[in-house]
Every structure is written in structure tokens, then in C-alpha cells.
Write a structure and sequence with these properties.
Blueprint lengths: L1 E6 L19 E2 L2 E2 H10 L5 E6 L3 H8 L8 E6 L14 H4 L4 E5 L2 E3 L1 H12 L6 E8 L7 E4 L5 E5 L4 H9 L9 E10 L3 H5 L12 H10 L4 E5 L4 E3 L3 H8 L4
Parallel strand pairs: 1-4, 1-6, 4-5, 8-12
Antiparallel strand pairs: 2-3, 6-11, 7-13, 8-11, 9-10, 9-11
């Protein structure tokens, strides 16, 4: 098992905090967010990492080096044009080889047990092409919605649904009153077959290559993607307010 971490973005919502640093290098309790992620993945037995860098790439590359001082092996690839999450993983295709791999964004913090549970869920079902993580809420306006079958395998998804799409989801029975809405938590586990689908991506109406479009194509191809609810902490370190709460123990 290997890991690919997407850490190329500027993190514009962090304002001046990311003027000279990429967001994954902002510190929480004295260590970069990215270091917390690597340590968590190591708890799941992962020692080989590929970090996709971009904005101030040298800050990440200089800090982590080859990974030896962190008990890991780390390689890098620079995403010169930040044109979406769908193409960024392809920089790691050679690194991944024929190994399954965890794919995560470099600004999401979870407990180490989450990574361990993902690996366990994947290993328990050899027919799986991957695992997607979710968080639950009754608010249906927060982000990408995932829908699952009775075995909690991904059956349908809608990225950032509009009011019209939400109405359609209710009419089709995907959204039911009083039930939990499952949100894409941004941490995945894939077989290398993912790259067959990222290679065929077209830009979305937002002008980006979307990883969720690759997931949709995988569903059309009848590949099985298991779901895993993240128990406990899940923090998208999206803005200075969230970062401040993490520092004070409020999250």
C-alpha cells in the first residue's frame, strides 16, 4: 500500500497565511498539517509517499526531503497548472505502479484510525476497486453528495448539487426526508485502474478536471467502490478560523 497526497494548491482562503507557504505547510500544534497526515498514514503501515506539489513547492520538498528523517520514502511531482483534482493524481502513476494507494488532499485532518479502517475495509473485499470516505449531515447544501446501496457501496454521486439538482434527487428518491446525507470526505483508496478513468476526463463546467467525474465513470463501468463513514474527527482546514480552532483545541 502506498499513498498519494495532493498538496499543489495555494489555499487562497487562507489569505496572507499562504503568501509564502502552501496551505499543507501551515502548522497545527507545532507541525505542518502535511506532517500530521503522513504520520497518520504511517499508522496504517504505509511507508511510501508521493506528494503532488505546486504553489511554493520548495517549502514542502525542502522540509520533508526524501522522507528518511520521518521514517518514510517520499517522492514528488509538480503540478505546473492547477487545473483540478482529476489530473493531479496522474503525476504519481509511475510511482503507484501496480500497488493500491490511498489518495488524500493535503489539508484534511482525521484520526489515524480512519486510514487503518480504510485499509481494512479494502482488504476485506478483493472485488473492490476502491474505498471512498464520507461524513454525514442532514444539511444537503454543504458539498458533494454520495449515495450508497444496501451494502454501503457507492451507487450515485452529485458534485456540489444546485437547488434544481437537489429537487431532482428528492424526486428520484435519492434524498429522503430525515435521512443522513453523505458527503465526500476527500480521502480515497484506489487500485491503479483509477488512471484508466482520469486519462479520459474532460473539463467540467467549472473549467477543471474533476476527480468525482472519474468516480462517476467507474460506476458506469460497474466497478465497485465501498463507502466508509469517518468516525470522529474530520477537519477540512479551509480558512484561518478553522486553523485557529485547531490550535486552541476547539476541533
Amino acid at each position: 500500500m502506498k499513498a498519494v497526497i495532493l498538496a499543489a494548491g495555494k489555499g487562497t482562503r487562507m489569505k496572507e497565511l499562504t503568501a509564502e507557504l502552501p496551505k499543507p505547510m501551515l502548522r497545527v500544534h507545532g507541525r505542518p498539517i502535511l506532517e500530521h497526515i503522513i504520520e497518520g498514514l504511517k499508522s496504517a503501515g504505509i511507508r511510501e509517499f508521493f506528494i503532488v506539489t505546486g504553489w511554493h513547492a520548495e517549502a514542502i520538498e525542502d522540509y520533508f526531503g526524501d522522507g528518511a528523517k520521518f521514517g518514510a520514502s517520499i517522492r514528488y511531482g509538480r503540478q505546473v497548472v492547477q487545473d483540478g483534482t482529476g489530473k493531479a493524481p496522474e503525476l504519481a502513476k509511475e510511482f503507484v505502479g501496480d500497488s493500491p494507494f490511498v489518495l488524500t488532499y493535503g489539508d484534511i485532518l482525521v484520526k489515524p484510525e480512519t486510514y487503518q479502517q480504510m485499509v481494512k475495509r479494502f482488504a476485506a473485499a478483493p472485488a473492490l476497486s476502491g474505498v471512498v470516505t464520507v461524513t454525514g449531515s442532514e444539511d444537503v447544501t454543504k458539498g458533494g453528495l454520495f449515495f450508497f446501496d444496501e451494502k454501503f457501496r457507492l451507487a450515485h454521486l452529485v458534485e456540489k448539487p444546485s437547488p434544481a439538482q437537489l429537487a431532482e434527487l428528492r424526486a428520484q428518491g435519492w434524498l429522503k426526508p430525515g435521512t443522513t446525507a453523505w458527503y465526500n470526505a476527500g480521502i480515497y483508496l484506489f487500485r491503479p485502474s483509477l488512471f484508466e478513468f482520469t486519462a479520459r476526463l474532460q473539463k467540467s463546467p467549472r473549467g477543471e478536471y474533476e476527480l468525482t467525474d472519474a468516480l462517476t465513470a467507474m460506476l458506469v463501468a460497474k466497478l465497485k467502490l465501498a463507502g466508509l463513514e469517518i468516525a470522529g474527527r474530520w477537519v477540512d482546514v479551509r480558512d484561518p478560523e478553522v486553523l485557529a480552532k485547531l490550535e486552541t483545541g476547539g476541533l
